[in-house]
Amino acid sequence: MLFSGDGCRLTTRGVTVRILLVEDDEDLRTEIREYLQRRGHEVTACGSLREAQLVAHRLAASGAFADVVVCDVNLPDGNGAEFYASMADQFPACHWVLMSGAHDVDRIEALQAGSRRPRCTVVEKPMSLRTLNSVLSRT
Question: Residue 81: what are its φ and ψ, rounded to 5°?
């Protein structure tokens, strides 16, 4: 079993990882969701930031928040990096993966600098699903 530095279970053989996926592109969201589900993960997929916020609050209230949040940065109704900044402190055991173009990397790293927020990994889009799986496997 692999754990991140903060004790969050990320990848294991035979153990389900709870993933909250936020991606507005329906085809890409479906592709990522199905890929992760084929690997045995439990995926809750959202098409907007508003939907993700509602789901996050519902999961938190039930005591079953995601182990990992995979979130697009540029969403039509908001910014995934701001979602990370506003929610990460509430879920310190959760690992965050932000999918973005290269132009967002500095801004996202600035959000982490000097904060106590859980670590966040930035994956540049476009990305292969193997790249995403690799990020989930090594963190």
Answer: -65, -40
